[in-house]
Structures are given as structure tokens and as C-alpha cells.
């Protein structure tokens, strides 16, 4: 199978790449030090169509396929990984809403996402329930013709910026079938947020959202009550492939910087790239990153063709962040003291990419999904 961009995808990559090079990359270190995006960035990203990647055209979006969303995220991640999270959230949530919402809900929900008026978060993880997401405890209690949300969500990317959220809460008994998804406005005294202080992705605004009796209506339910985890989560089947591509882009950017350095840095009278101990590790990681990238795009291609993407998506998710982290580490070693310095191009990339080994499922969780598909649930952990 040969993978090549279509003409439309080449144009998309060029447009997003140019935007990222001009409006994102020059501010990467500044945003990291500040712990937030530069003022005006989110409206600029909205104007560039980045929040409407997966929003149907009828609601003001670009209506791109999953593969094209992956292309856009790659271009952004190469410039600054942290800006990907609100774009990723918008793509995933818009897809979930479009597949499960009523016409009235879609008319109310999707245009603001496409315009960037609604910056969305995905509220699933809790303090005691990360990998075991079906065990979440946050409650949605019936109240007249609506519900009252009470509980806390942790490790939520874009907490600092989010205006709306897809919130998963328990409305029934234990297990996945007792969970309902709600699309809620976070502008309420009943919602409080707290930033977390992280090793990397500091501008990404990860934090905690606490819901203290937030009342929502029945028209805020996404899909059917009690079907939030089982039905709505199907829309996230390829999310791990998108995260894998974000990691790969960071790894490739670091390897490119190391290759450029190996061509201009001299030792013992010749460029250091002439030494196998320098060039061969870079070749190895360039190879591994390319392989992981193909697995990720296999998953997105399956999703675009109505096929189950879960095996390649989970394979890509456990493999790509690990390879990318190791590739960035190798690039740091290649640059030597320039790599070690926070003033250089590598150190922040290493801190940032480590987090993708946790995001949306650890290696253990994703390998478990693959094992159960390959061996069958009766023969797998």
C-alpha cells in the first residue's frame, strides 16, 4: 500500500505549515516560559479554520476526513506540540456531536466550534479513574427536566482556555452502560478550574475542572442517556492515531534539527555526520518514525473508509510516543550542550513529547486493546 497526499491534502499541509511557521513556531519558547499561548493566538487559529477541521460544511466547518485532520495536526505539532490540544479536542468533539446530536443540537453546538467561539475540552478522566474510564464516579442526578452534575475531572487538556466541554458522568449503575455524555457550557459559578504545573506542554493549560451542582438540561445530553461511554466513545476510535502523529511530528522535527547540526558542526577536521556513531542513530530513528507514521495513517485510512481502526490506532499509540521520545533524546545527544540547554531547540521538545506516552491511554492500556483483538478476550489479559 502506497501512501501519498491528494492535491487537496498537499494544499492543506502547505497552508497549515506556513501558518504554523509564521504564527506559532517563533513563539514556542515564549509560550512555554509563560505557561500560556500568546495573546490572540486562538482567534488566529480559528480564522485559519483549524477548529473546523471535522465540522460538517453545513455548520461552517471544513468537513475534512480523519487523514486530513492528521495532516493538519502534524504540521502544528512540528511547530509547537502544545497548540495541538484545542485543535484535537475540536476535531474529536465535533465528530462525536455530529454523529450523535439532533438537528437542533448541531445547529446550536457546531457553528461556535468552527468559528472558535467555543473552545472545547473532553472531561472523562478522574483522580481515581484514568485507564479504567468506565469506572468513573462523577454523578449526574435527575432534576426535573434536566440533570445536576457533581464531581471533579482531572488532567483535562485546555482547561485554561475551554468554554465548553464534553462531560461524562454516571447516571445509572456501575460499568460503561451507566454513563451519559453531556455537552455543557463552562461559564457558570458552579464550575471551577485549577491549573496543573507540568513537566512539559506548559502552554497547553492542563488542569482540573470541578462541578459543584451544575444544572444542565435534557437537550444537553449527547445521544441517549446511559449510552455515553458505549456509543459516544466510538467517535474516539481513531483519536490515538492522531496523538501518535503529533508525537511523530515532534520526533521528526528534532531529528531534522540534529541532521542539520551534524552537517555544520565539525570535529577533528570534518562534519560530525561523517562519523557512524552520529549518523547511524539518526537514520535508525528516522526509519522508526516513518514506520510508526504509516501505521497511524493506516488507522485513519480505515476510519475514513468505514472500517474498524482500533488495531492500528492502538498500535500507533503505544509505539509512536515511545519512538518519538527516544528520537528527541537522540537529537539532544547529537547537539550536545546545545541540546541540553533550554535556550536550544531540543530540550522543550523532549519535555513536551514525554506526556504523549500518557495522553489518551498508556502503552499498557493500548497494548491490552490490541491483545484482545488479536487473541480474543478469552485468551488475553
What does this structure look like?
48% of the residues lie in helices and 15% in strands. The chain folds into 3 domains: 7-118, Butyryl-Coa Dehydrogenase, subunit A, domain 1 (Orthogonal Bundle); 121-226, Butyryl-CoA Dehydrogenase, subunit A, domain 2, CATH 2.40.110.10; 237-379, Butyryl-CoA Dehydrogenase, subunit A, domain 3. The strands form 3 sheets. The protein has a 4-stranded mixed β-sheet, with helices on one face. The protein has a 4-stranded antiparallel β-sheet with strand order 2-3-7-6, with no helix packed on it. A two-stranded antiparallel sheet has the order 9-10. The protein is built from 12 helices and 10 strands. The chain has helices spanning 7-23, 28-34, 41-47, 66-79, 84-100, 103-115, 239-264, 276-304, 310-335, 337-340, 347-354, 363-375; strands at residues 120-123, 139-143, 146-156, 164-170, 179-185, 191-195, 207-217, 221-222, 266-267, 270-271. The longest helix has 29 residues, at 276-304. With 381 residues, the chain is α+β, with helices and mostly antiparallel strands.
What descriptive keywords fit this protein?
381 residues; alpha+beta; Butyryl-Coa Dehydrogenase, subunit A, domain 1; Butyryl-CoA Dehydrogenase, subunit A, domain 2; Butyryl-CoA Dehydrogenase, subunit A, domain 3; 3 domains; 4-stranded mixed β-sheet; 4-stranded antiparallel β-sheet; 48% helix; flavoprotein; flavin adenine dinucleotide binding; acyl-CoA dehydrogenase activity; AcylCoA_DH/ox_N; Cyclohexanecarboxyl-CoA dehydrogenase
